[in-house]
Amino acid sequence: MNAPELDYITVKGFKSIASAEKLGLRPINVIIGANGSGKSNLVALFRFLQHIRSGHLQDYAGKIGADNLLHFGPKTTPRLSLELGFTGVERISYALELEPGHAVELLPVSETVTHVTDGKTVKEQLVRNGREAGISGDGLQGTAKWIAGRIQLWRLYHLHDTGDTSPLRRAADLEDNRSLRADAGNLPAFLYLLQQRHPVSYSLLRRTVQLVAPFFDDFILRPSELNPDRIKLEWRHRESDAYFDAWALSDGTLRFIALAAIFMQPVELRPRLIVVDEPELGLHPLAINLLGSMIRMAAVDSQIVLATQSSHLLDEFTPEDVLVVERSRHTTTFQRLDGVRLESWLEDYSLGELWEKNEFGGRPGSCRD
To answer: What is the pLDDT of residue 87?
Structure first.
């Protein structure tokens, strides 16, 4: 297994996270915790970082509210700080500090990149890009350019919406296929790209979907006859010549197809870091087993962060993959499971069963507010 993308994250003053010092990250990071514990805030941190990199920090702060991003508001948290430590032979890190400005602004006040090689430390102070962070600039060089490029290769997926008006069920622009969007709204265009340019990955994805949906034969992916710039997600039934569109798929099947596209896309297209919030929603237990297999396979080349409430999905991983999130004295805390400590328990119970029994926290009864 390759080294993970991120070695650690330090975050102070973000939402419910008062302080998390050098939170270590592995190739697979499964976040579990009770509702309200703050596990979704760790997921939100990656979205926050993407907005910072893309130059949309102020838009994000305006939409969410700068006060809502700071732990208990600016009176309690006058400054929010982040640090990312990257893996590799050369130690590279990125640090950012932000303070609330006028109205809903959240302004960068200190931003540095650090590069340590052969015992020599080079630290560079970035210049703010207007009201945005310096890492969002176009003229970056050296270590700063490398870090910006890495963050740009991360993807956070949110597949909760599978309703009738969901982007997952609508037609997509044929050329919108550079990468799978956060809501998988360009799924048919992306599958078409895999079918045409990456047939081995496409064939494996198709066979995996068949395991979950035995009635499914294959996708019918082609530009619309009346509008060749658009493409719909259509598919053929195994026992019929008739074909159907996305509206004929259940929520769980449609979500599984999107998850398969995320984790089974070719390595050269796959994001360096993949973040998914509650991927198990609406999935049959067999589909959850397959999801676990897809995640483990993808983690050979990509770092995975996922938040879940499924004990069934938890069974697919090792204790060391799991981060337990709890709310203690109004702040979110993180603890990675210790496989050695749980070794005797795991002789009689699965990891998911131990979680349900509240043997290592992360359940409603273990929160200590």
So the answer is: 86
Beta-sheet strands, E only, within 214-321:
216-220, 230-231, 234-237, 243-245, 273-277, 303-307
Q: Which long-range contacts (CB under 8 A, 24 or more apart) does 194-203 make?
A: 194/261, 194/265, 194/266, 195/219, 195/221, 198/265, 198/266, 198/269, 201/264, 201/265, 201/266
Per-residue buried b or exposed e for 224-241, using 16+ beta carbons within 10 Å of the residue's own CB: eeeeeebbbbebbeeeee
CA–CA dist 297, 273 (Å, integer): 14
Provide the residue count of the chain.
369
Bridge partners for 23 per DSSP: 9
Contact 161, 183 (CB under 8 A): yes
- pLDDT tens for residues 232-287? 999 999 988 888 999 999 999 999 999 999 999 999 999 999 999 999 999 999 99
183-220 residue pLDDT tens: 999 999 999 999 999 999 999 999 999 999 999 999 99
Residue 368 in this model has a pLDDT that exceeds 50: no
Segments making up each domain of the chain, as ranges = 164-270
> 29 — phi, psi (to 5°)?
-135, 105
- Starting at the edge strand found earlier in the chain, the sheet holding 234-237 runs 216-220, 234-237, 243-245
Above 80 in pLDDT, residue 6? yes
Beta strands in the chain (DSSP E): 6-14, 17-24, 28-33, 80-86, 91-100, 106-117, 120-125, 154-157, 172-173, 216-220, 230-231, 234-237, 243-245, 273-277, 303-307, 322-328, 331-336
Residues 346, 349: Cα–Cα separation, whole Å: 5
Distance, CA of 28 to CA of 37 (rounded, Å): 20
The model's pLDDT over 11-28, given as tens digits with 9 standing for 90+, comes to 999 999 999 999 999 999
Which residue has 């499971």 as its token pair?
337
Q: Among 144, 160, 163, 142, which residue's Cα sits nearest to residue 152?
A: 144
User: Both tokens of residue 272?
Assistant: 């360096």
- Which residue, among 271, 276, 275, 321, has the nearest Cα to 296 in the 3D structure? 321
Q: What SS3 state is found at 23? A: strand
